[in-house]
Each structure stands twice: as structure tokens, then as C-alpha cells.
Amino acid sequence: MSDEFTSEIMSMPLIALRGVNVFPQTEVRFDVERQKSILAIDTAMNEDGLVFLVNQKDPEVDLPTAKDLYTMGTVAKIKRVLKLPGEHIRVLVIGQYRARLRRMLYEMPYFHCSVSRIDDIAGEPGPEAEALIRTCANLYGAYRKAHPRFPSDEFHGFERPDDPGYIADFVVTQMDIKASEAHKVLIAQDPVKRLKLVVKYLVRETEISKLEGQINEKIQTRLTKAQRESYLREQIKTIQEELGNKEDIGAETAEWRKQLKKLKLPQQTAAKIEKEIDRAEKLPSYAPDLSVLRTYINTVLELPWHKRSAVSMDIARAQEILDEDHYGLEKVKDRILEYLAVQTLAKDLKSPILCLVGPPGVGKTSIARSIARSVDRQFVHMSLGGVRDEAEIRGHRRTYVGAIPGRVMSAIKECGYSDPVFLFDEVDKIGSDFRGDPASALLEVLDPEQNKEFMDHYLEVPFDLSNVMFITTANTTDTIPRPLLDRMEVIELSGYTSEEKLNIAQKYLIPKQIKANGLKQKNISIHKDAVEEIINSYTRESGVRGLEKQIAGVCRKVARMIVAGDESRQVVTAKNIEEYLGNKRFHYDKILEKNEIGVSTGLAWTVVGGDTLFIETACMPGSGHIQLTGQLGDVMQESAKAAISYIRAHASDLGVDEEFYKNKDIHIHIPEGATPKDGPSAGVTMCVSVLSALTGRAVRKNVAMTGEISLRGKILPVGGIKEKMIAAHRLGIKKVLLPADNERDLDDLPKTVHEQMEFVLISEVGDAVREALI
Description:
Elements: E1 5-17, E2 27-32, H1 35-46, E3 50-55, E4 72-84, E5 88-106, E6 111-119, H2 127-146, H3 164-174, H4 179-187, H5 191-222, H6 225-242, H7 250-263, H8 267-282, H9 288-302, H10 315-325, H11 330-345, E7 353-357, H12 364-374, E8 379-383, H13 391-394, H14 407-415, E9 421-425, H15 438-445, E10 454-455, E11 462-463, E12 469-474, H16 482-486, E13 489-492, H17 498-516, E14 524-526, H18 528-537, H19 545-563, E15 570-572, H20 577-581, E16 599-606, E17 609-621, E18 626-629, H21 634-649, H22 651-654, H23 660-663, E19 664-669, H24 683-695, E20 703-705, E21 708-709, E22 715-716, H25 721-731, E23 735-739, H26 751-756, E24 758-762, H27 765-772
Parallel strand pairs: 1-3, 7-12, 7-13, 8-9, 9-12, 14-15, 16-20, 18-19, 20-23, 23-24
Antiparallel strand pairs: 1-6, 2-5, 3-4, 4-5, 5-6, 10-11, 16-17, 17-19, 21-22
């Protein structure tokens, strides 16, 4: 037997509602936009004013049919109709009774249907209904207090306190719940079951309201002054929106479209930006996404998509600028001039990607600035030292709060041109962690085949970086990932000789520091011998950064003397340099005073240039024990063992007692024991030192050597030849023994070093013995 109580069937117009439930005995206002619904209201007004109101199953459907509607709804009487601007109307209705859709009589030009009235299941309220009514009254009172939209006066009860069905219908219309939940209440015919459902919703909503209150209270206590102001501004915006004072962004979007059209971007990029502009146009002024979109659109439109520098093709002028700013660095200068020459002939030439590798202070960063000046391009600098986040290169995706473009695109935007000289400084010191690998992100930036469509995560549109002249700097290539290194043209910058440092100081550093410290040429004169003394006794470096600091120290001393009243011209010489800079800080090794047994002179490479080292060997009666001291690394210890093994294997040929490894202990020591030392290039030097100690033949004091040794006695090539030869020249060495395979490296030596020293190419230990031992 059905529990549905129905009465006669009636026909009337039908209006499909979206997300609005009308209950019996309640007044509801809603706006009507559809022409079909407006016709239905006109028809009802001309008849008895009754209309059947039913909800759509899917509110997104614009043109519903009978199958898109629920069957259960409410018959309501139209009380008032108000016309709004734009052919819209606002309707005030009073719900009469529940009804069920029986048949759709016709759907055009409006919905007209037959419905049957459905009454509540009759019955006297029992104890359960009484308990539910009291619970509902208490919960509804608490719910009203928690919501500011209700009046502040106390709730004194329902108009019909004994009618559970009426109470359920009344309360549900006062609650902010989903339309689908309200519809469940509408279709419940049993008043007690209906009230149970409403109480369930009230319990939930009351708990949510309590939690919201607690959260709001915590937030309010944490709000700073700036946050309170921001909150108030948002409230003002909301009030203005309610008053109809909407912020019109139409002028702004029109300007964006004008800029977009003027830029003539690729079709795909233009479509993407147009889509974002459309989104911004549809958002209300108070929407948080609007400011995000505004920032994004302005960023994209401000990029220099087609703006290029008027690059100078005057090679003579470029040469003049490079020579004016830097002394030496011929390889870099030649490469830039070659690029300009080729670009003059081939207009579509892609810019080179150079990697300048050398010790600190040799001018890697400053030559990049000079390159930009010589080719009339903007200069952009980005230091990669310590960068560990991939987003520094590619940017953050816009899903993150506070997202911004990567530093590459930000720098391009700031400089205003699409073809600057872009310097990535300290590329060898890039790191990686859980946030990504910046070196991998750089692969796309520095690859000529990929960077023409570089995609920043924030911008999400391709940008052409192929016209940018990328230059990177590094102290060593050992820590640069191989795929990244493969994309760059490596140019090695060696340290300066003392003569080169002297020229740089006289031509560039001294005039620069005199001006920087507020002095004039009449106030100070720094003699050549003073500069040489600073180079040799106050600095130990491959570059000139420390030298410039010392010259600056001298100038500051003079400036203080002038301010104190002594305006006489200060003449700085090697004899009085200590008055300005204090005691000497460094003492370079000096050549041995005489030929000694067991002491040979070796050459080493360090990050600050070349250096010399003395290897000492002592032989004493013992049992064949070998001792190595001086903080030698694993590779250097292995070189010493290889040298001794070679001597044992060829003892008779070398004139050594074949039983020496049984009755003699050998101790090899390299002074400056606090300094760690490693590498294979001292192999031949240790071999000569041990042979000298075993045979009693002294080593020539003016001979230095370098080279790796094999067990067969072959001398293998080593690196850092230029720096090592400069160190030997500084020490006063006249003859240097070096591997024959390093002959090509002699072409890079300064002219003065080449002229004042003798270089002997050796292929095996026997060659070194003949040249070094007396």
C-alpha cells in the first residue's frame, strides 16, 4: 500500500528552478531570466496565479526538458512581479502545498503540466515528535545566534509549535545548506521523518558554526595591523559590490588587447594570452584570482618579444674598447672579434655560448661587461653560486601563491631587450637538492637548438633566447656537469705573470683607486718597484683582486694624511711600502743556495696559480721501511711508491745498490706540512730526489721539474704548465724539465718567461737523471 496521500489532478504552468527549493507556507523571491519561464508567469498571472515550482537535477543545464526535472515540487501562488533591467523579472511567491508532476502537457512556448497535490501523512504527534520539536527549537536558536544575518533578538519559538511538518519546512528555509539536501526534506511526506532530517542538518551546521567561530577567533588574535587593513579593504570591496559599485576593468582589458595586437606574437602564444584576458574580464573585482591574472598578463606583455639592440659591427671600435678595459686576455678578445666578423657576413648567426674558466681575480666577470659594451648590448648578470632551486631558472608554476617568473626571464624583462649579454657567474658552484637540479634547467637555456622556445613555468608560453649572448664563468670545469659543459665553448684564462700584474696595476688599478678614494695625481705617486713589492710580498694570487685591495689600502692611508693636514705629495717606493701596508705577509720560496743531495725542486698548480715545492729524501740504515710525510694525498703517495718500485726494478742501470730496499729506510718529506698536497705531477721530482739520496749525487739547484711517472719509467703529461712555469720563473729557475707531450703548452707562455728560461722535454726517467743529477 502506498504511503502517498494525493488528491485531485490539476494543470498549471511550470517553472524550472536552479538551486532554489520553495516550501509550503513560505515566501521566496527569485529572479527569472528564461523567456520560457517569463511566459509561464504571465500565463499564471492571467489565470489563478498558481504555478508549479520544481528544481532541475543539474543546475548547469540552460534549456531543460521534462527529463531534466525532479517530479516532486511545490505549488505556489504568485504574489508580486517586478521587472528588472534587461528583460529580467523578480518574482515573490508563497508556497501552497507539495505536489507531484504527473504529466508534461506541452513544453513550448512554456512548460505546462498536470500535477497532483500531496498531503502530509496524518497522525497525532507522539513523544518522539515532541522531543524532536524541542530539540529543533534549541538547535535553531543556537544556529540563529551563530549567524550574523539573523536579528539579534531572542528566538521565542515557532508559530505552530505542535506541527512537526511546518516546523521542518520553516527551519530548512532559514538554513544555508545544499539544494540537494533541501530537496530531500521537500520530498519527505512523513512530518516526523522530515523533522528528523532537519534536526540532523541543524546538528551538523551548528557544529560547523562553532568551529568557524573558534577558527575566526584564533585568526583575529593573530592578525597584524597590515592584515587587519587588508581585511577591511576586502570588506569595503564587498560592500561596494553589494551596492552595485563594480570596478570596471573593461578599459584595462581593452588596453591589454591593444598591446597584444601590437606585439604580433605567434598564434599559439597570442591565443593563450587572449584566453587569460577573457578570464580576467569575467572575474568580479574582489576575486583574488584577478590580481594574479593582472600580474601575469602585464608580465607577459612587458617582455621584449621583438625588441633587439642595434648591435655595433665596428670591429676596430670593439677591439679598442676591449683593450681599453682589460690587459691581456687575448683568447677572449679574439673570440668576440671573430663573432662580430662572422655576424657581419651571416646576419642570422646565433650568439655564442662562452665559458670563461680561470682562477679568481683574473677578470672573468669584468671582461663580460666589456664584451657587452663592445657590441652595444645590454648587460645582465646572474650569480649561480649556491643556487639549488630549479625555480630560480625556470620560475614557479602559477598554482603556487606568490609565483614569479624565473630569474632568466625576469632579467630579460628588466633589461628591455631580447638579445643582451647574459652572464651566468660561478656556474661551477651550482648545487642541487629536493627542489630540483638547476644545472639540468640550464641545459635548455644554454642549448642553441632548444632555447629558441624556452618555456618558463610561470609564463607557460615559449620565448626565443637564441639571440642572447650567454657567457658563463667558472674556476674549474671539474664540478660542471658534462652535458652542460658540452653546450659551452670553454676558454681558459690563466693567471697573470708578475709583469702582467705590474702593467695592469699601472694602467688600470692605480688610476682607478686614486679616483675612488678622492685623490688626485698630485697627491700620490706609486713607483714601479713599490708595485712589484706589493705583488711579491703582500699578495699571493693568480689574479689582481688582492693587488687592487692593497693599492686601495695605500690610497686610503694617503687620504687620511691629507685630511689630517699633510698635503705634501706622497711618494710610495719599495723602501717605504711597509709604512703604508705594514709587515710583509708572504715570502716566496727562494732558489737553493747550493746543490744538495736528496733535495729536488718540483712545480705545483693551485687554485691561486703556480707554486714551487722542495722534495726532501733521507736514506738511513734500516729494514726497507718507507715513510711519507707532509700531508700527502693518496695520489701523491702512490706516485712516490711507483718511483721507488721503478728504482728497485732498474737499480743496476741507475747505479743503485740492488739490496737497498732490504738494508735502508727511506723517508720522503715535502715541507709546509700543514698544507695538504696531492696529484701525480710530482712523480718525476720524487724519483730524482730518491735517486739522489741513494746514489749520493747532488741535484742541480737551478733545475725544476714536473711530470707523472709510470712503472716503466715513462714521463706522462700533466696540466697547469703555464702557471708552473711562471712560478719557476719567479723563483729564479733557469732550466725546467717537463714531459715531451706538454710541448704544445709552451706556446701559451708569456714572452718574458720564454726568453729567460730553458725548457727540456723528457720522455723517461733517464732523461731527467741526466739533466738534474751532477
